Amino acid sequence: MPKLCEEDRARAVLILDKLRLDLHEACAGNEEILFSMKRYIAKRLEFDERGTPTQRRKLKEQKMKTQNGLCAVCNSRLPDHGAELDRFHALRGYTIENTQLLCPTCHRSTQQARDALSIHTQLSGGIQRP
């Protein structure tokens, strides 16, 4: 996944600083409200990236049906609980086209292979921004 350049990071910091000021103004010194608003905003940003738990659960159910209850890598029977929804490309989100359902063992090995590739990419100069 591409890293932010200094210019993009500086813009993100400005946005975050403004958000913090807006939150403090909106809460008028009420620490409990400030805490709750921060948590609410953090969760909504996470949902922007990952979808809601309900959306991911429904996607898992769809994948379980389309994969006939089998792991997409080793074709073993998926467990009733603990099957992992795996994204091919993190930036493309959790969609039917961008996911596969894996058993815990295959998910772990797939993620380790991706992590190793990411480290190799970073060490060899990384992904350059256009």
Characterization of the model:
This protein has 130 residues and is mainly α. The chain folds into two domains: 1-50; 52-130, His-Me finger endonuclease fold (3-Layer(aba) Sandwich). The chain is 58% helix and 6% strand. It has four helices and two strands, in the order H-H-H-E-E-H. The chain has helices at 6-27, 31-50, 53-66, 104-123; strands at 84-87, 99-102. The protein is extended, with a radius of gyration of 19 Å.
CATH architecture of the largest domain: 3-Layer(aba) Sandwich
Number of domain units: 2
Q: Characterize the main sheet.
A: 2 strands, antiparallel
CATH overall fold name of the largest domain: His-Me finger endonuclease fold
Structural class: mainly alpha
Separation of termini? Answer: 14 Å
Extract low-pLDDT stretches.
Answer: none
Percent of residues in beta strands: 5-15%
Write down the overall mean pLDDT. Answer: 89
Helix % is 55-70%
Rg, rounded, reads 19 Å
What is the overall silhouette?
A: extended
CATH class membership of the largest domain: Alpha Beta
Count of DSSP strands: 2
Q: Encode the helix/strand succession as letters.
A: HHHEEH
Major sheet: arrangement of strands = 1-2
